[in-house]
Design goal:
The structure is a homodimer.
Chain A lengths: L7 H9 L9 E3 L6 E3 L6 E10 L11 H19 L2 E11 L5 H17 L3 E9 L5 E10 L15 E5 L4 H14 L9 H10 L8 H11 L5 H9 L5 E4 L4 H12 L2 E5 L7 H9 L4 H7 L6 E5 L4 H11 L3 E8 L4 E5 L2 E4 L13 E3 L17
Parallel strand pairs in A: 4-5, 9-12
Antiparallel strand pairs in A: 1-2, 3-6, 4-6, 7-10, 7-11, 8-10, 9-11, 12-13
Helix pairs in contact in A: 2-3, 2-7, 4-6, 4-9, 7-11, 9-10
C-alpha cells in the first residue's frame, strides 16, 4: 500500500494521530488556511528552515524512515540550539513520491513526532505535495530566546577559549559503514525476527556489527541535537559565540572566526575524536584528525568562551547533558590553524567549493562548504 | 553558466543583493545559525508553508523563472490573506537542480523579491540545497493579526451571505493556453526583440495572443494575492468565515461549509466568471460554470458575511482593492448545492480524490482535493 492509495485527508489524519494535544498558545491549528499562535512575552523569536533531500542528504537504501524523520527535525533543532533558543513549533512540508509506502510515510512521521515530543516542539501546520522525483522533507522551526541571551557567531574575541561538545567523527564513520553495507550486503543468518523485520523495513542489510560500530551508525542515523546545552549556555551567558557543527568542526571554526573577525588555533591533540572513528579512519590509512574535523553530520556545538567568564561554563556543563572539551583558542592573528606536533598548519577544510559538490547550504549560515573528504558525507 | 559554477556563498549573495535593508525588528538576519526577530506586540502570529514542485505545480517549459518565484510567494500570501493577517517575514528553502541556469536562478529570486517588497515581507533566512530531481521552492511565511480579528473557516452560520473577490476561471484558461502553446508552438515572426528575449528566457513560445487571452495567462502566471482585502475584512470584522480559492471556488465552499457545520446554495447566474474564460470554455464545448468553479489557481477569497454586519463590508470593499460579488448563501440544510435554471444540484467538485491525482495539500487546509477537470490544473 502506497500513499497514492490514500486521500490527502487520510495522510493528514495519520500525522495528526501522532501529535500530542495542542498547547494553549495555539489559537488555530491544522485545518485552516494558516496556523495562529500567541507569541511568548518578553522573548525574541528564532526561526530556521532546513531541507533533507533524498539522494543528497540521505539514501533510503540504508536510512530507515524514522531516522529520516528524526534527522530532518534534528538538523533544525541543532540550529536553534546554536542560538540558545528553546524550541517551540514546527511547520512540516513534505514532497512525497507517489510510490512511497504508507508504512514508510508512517515511519517518517513517527521519527519526527517522537523527537518533537521529546524536545517540546508542536507541529502546527504544513504542506503535503507529490514529488516528481526525490522524497523531500522541509521543516521550518521556531523557538524563543531572551533577546540579551542570543548566541551569535560574531561575539568571539582574541583570547577566547574554544570548546566543542560531545565527540566528533562518529557520524562520518557511521555513514561510511552504512554505505559499505549496501555495496557489500551480508544477510543475517541469526534468524532473529526483530532484526530481520528492522532490516526489511529500513532496507538496512547491515548485520552483526560490533557495538562500537553500531554506536557510530546511530550517531549518523539519530543525531542528538544539543538543545539543552544551548539553553544552558544562553541562560548562564557563558558563550561569546556559538555555532553548530552540521558541516563539520573545521567549517564551524572558520565561520566563527570570520564572523567574529578573529583567527583560531586548534590543538590537534585535544580533539575529542570518537575512539571508534579514530580506529576506523586509521585502519583505512586516513588521517583521523583531518577526517574527524572535516566530516559532517556531527550535530555538536562549537562554543567560544571569554577567559573571565569561564566559571559560568561549569553550570552550563552541569545541566547541559553533554561534556565540553577545550580544543583551542581565538587569536588576534586572522589565520585559522591546526597546531600539531609543535607546528601550525592551515586548518584543513577551508577551501572554496562549488554548489554541485556541496551537500546543502543555509542562508542562515551564509557559508562556503569546505572541500569534502570523499566518503565522509552523504552525497 | 549554471548554479554549479557558483559557490553557495555566491548564490546567497545574489539573493541578498535583491533584498531591501533589514527592518529594525530583525535582530539577527542572514549569516547566523538562525534568524532572530522581535515579535509584534499585542498581535498573534500567523504561520503557513507552501511548496511549489516542478512538474507538479509548474512547468518550466512555459512558466518563466520570475513567475515561478512570484507564484511561490503568492500562494503563501494568499493563505495569510485568508486569515486576515499582515505579512511580515519569509524563510526561503530552495532545492535546485545543478543544471539550473544562473539567469533562471536570478529570475526566480527576482520574482520572489519583487512581490515580497510590494507586500512588505522580509526574507530573514532560508536554505539552499541541490535537488537530484525537480526544482522545488518552499516558502514559510509569517504574519500578524489581532487575536480577535482572525478570519477562520469555521464561523459561518445559516443565513450568512457568501461573496467571492475578483473573478474566477481566468487562471485555468491561462494555464490551458500556455500548455497548448508548448504542444503546438508557433514562433514569433514579429522580430520584436523584447518579446523574443522574453520567450527564450522563459521557454514560452506563445506569440501574438489577444490581449484578452494574455490577461488570463497573466492571471495564471502572476496571481495577485488578496492581502489588502484580507486585512480590511479583519479590521472591520466584516467576515464570519474566510478562505482562499487556491483549489477552486467549489473546494472553498465545501471547506467553509464543513468547518462551519452549514450547507450552501451557490447561484450559478451570479458567479463572476472572467468573460474571456467563459468564452474559451464555451468554445471548447465545456460548461463554463463547472470549469470556473472547479478550476484552481484563482487566488481569490471566499467570504461569509452575517446579514446584520453587511454594512461593515462596504468599508472593506472600499479599501480592499478588489470587488466582491455575492454568489450565494449559507443554509441550515447541510447540502452544498448549485442553484441553476430554477433547480438545485450538488455543487460539482465535492468528490474524493487520491493523493496521486491531487496537486498539493496543506496540513493547514486538511482537505480532500475535489476531482479535477482535466486540463484545468497544473499536473
Amino acid at each position: 500500500m502506497t500513499i497514492s492509495d490514500c486521500s490527502e485527508r487520510e495522510l493528514i489524519a495519520r500525522i495528526q494521530a501522532r501529535l500530542p494535544p495542542p498547547p494553549d498558545w495555539l489559537l488555530v491549528g491544522i485545518g485552516d488556511d494558516a496556523a495562529v499562535v500567541e507569541p511568548e512575552r518578553h522573548r525574541a523569536e528564532v526561526l530556521t528552515v532546513d531541507a533533507l533531500v533524498e539522494g543528497v542528504h540521505f539514501d533510503r537504501a540504508f536510512v530507515p524512515p524514522d531516522a529520516i524523520g528524526h534527522r530532518a527535525l534534528a538538523v533544525n533543532l541543532s540550529d536553534l540550539a546554536a542560538m540558545g533558543a528553546a524550541p517551540r513549533l514546527a511547520l512540516l512540508s513534505l514532497a512525497l513520491p507517489p510510490g512511497l509506502l504508507i508504512a514508510d510515510f508512517d515511519g517518517l512521521v513517527a521519527g519526527i513526532a517522537a523527537l518533537a515530543e521529546r524536545t517540546r516542539v508542536h507541529v502546527v501546520g504544513g504542506n503535503l505535495t507529490r514529488s516528481t522525483g526525490p522524497l523531500m522533507i522541509d521543516i521550518s522551526l521556531t523557538g524563543t530566546v531572551k533577546p540579551r541571551q542570543v548566541l551569535k557567531r560574531s561575539g568571539a574575541r582574541p583570547g577566547d577559549t574554544l570548546y566543542v561538545s560531545g565527540t566528533i567523527g562518529a557520524a562520518a564513520v557511521g555513514l561510511m559503514m552504512l554505505r559499505n553495507s549496501t555495496t557489500h550486503p551480508k544477510r543475517s543468518t541469526t534468524g532473529d525476527t526483530k532484526d530481520t523485520e528492522e532490516q526489511s523495513r529500513s532496507g538496512n542489510v547491515l548485520t552483526s556489527v560490533s557495538p562500537v560500530v553500531e554506536r557510530c551508525i546511530q550517531r549518523y542515523l539519530r543525531p542528538e541535537p544539543r538543545v539543552r546545552l544551548g539553553l544552558m549556555l544562553a541562560r548562564n551567558r557563558a558563550a561569546s559565540a556559538c555555532m553548530d557543527l552540521s558541516d563539520g568542526l573545521s567549517d564551524a571554526v572558520y565561520q566563527i572566526a570570520a564572523a567574529s573577525g578573529v583567527g583560531a588555533r586548534i590543538d590537534a591533540g585535544a580533539l575529542p575524536i570518537e575512539p571508534c572513528a579514530r580506529e576506523v579512519f586509521a585502519a583505512r590509512g586516513a588521517d583521523p584528525v583531518t577526517e574527524a574535523i572535516t566530516g559532517g553530520d556531527d550535530y555538536e556545538l562549537l562554543v567560544a568562551v571569554r577567559p573571565r567568564t569561564r566559571g559560568r561554563l561549569a553550570a552550563a556543563i552541569r545541566h547541559g547533558g553533554v561534556p565540553l572539551t577545550r580544543i583551542g583558542v581565538c587569536t588576534e592573528d586572522r589565520a585559522v590553524v591546526l597546531s600539531r606536533d609543535g607546528g601550525d598548519t592551515p586548518l584543513p577544510g577551508g577551501g572554496y567549493s562549488h554548489f554541485r559538490s556541496a551537500e546543502a547550504s543555509s542562508l542562515d549560515h551564509a557559508r562556503d562548504d569546505p572541500a569534502r573528504v570523499e566518503g565522509s558525507r552523504a552525497t
